Amino acid sequence: ITHHVVRFLRLPSVCRFQDNKQQGGSDTKCPLAVKVLDAVRGAPATAVQLKVSRKTEDGSWTEVAAGVTDTAGEVHNLIEEKDFTSGVYKATFDTQAYWTAAGRTSFHEAAEVTFKAHEQGHQHYTLALLLSPFSYTTTAVVNGAHE
Question: Which GO terms describe its molecular function (predicted)?
């Protein structure tokens, strides 16, 4: 049985990382960012492909963004503020390809995080994913858009 835990935290910074510089040059360019860590190596998970989909009124999913983690295991500027509207979203990470490239066998083909966006007003989100070949865990940092 695989258990998935998503925790939403309110912290004062978003779209900031290692060197403490704001990414994308503008707060409006970073309503959704991701960070992926490899628990086996204790290091950022580089070259993890992901896609972000929005749930439609009929219950189907429409892809709205895609990206690949950089050398810091991060993806910023996935979607612009104007396109990141209220609704249910799903981030799907291609974990099988990541573990195959690392020479490991994985239990899961993908890690999925499904979440509601902007239920408490306009927010910015950073999804963090900690990977191992047989499990994954997620957490999220949620901020007001201009805190």
Answer: hormone activity; thyroid hormone binding
Which residues is 128 bridged to in the sheet? 35, 139
CA 36 to chain CA centroid, Å, is 8
pTM equals 0.78
Give the whole-angstrom CA distance, residue 88 versus residue 62. 11
Question: Which secondary-structure segment (H or E) carries 101?
Answer: helix 95-101
Its sign, for the CA torsion 137, 139, 29, 91, is positive
CA distance 27 to 146: 7
Nearest CA-CA partner of 76 in 144, 12, 133, 21: 21
Residue 124 in contact with residue 142, Cβ under 8 Å?
A: yes
* pLDDT tens per residue across span 84-102: 888 999 999 999 999 999 9
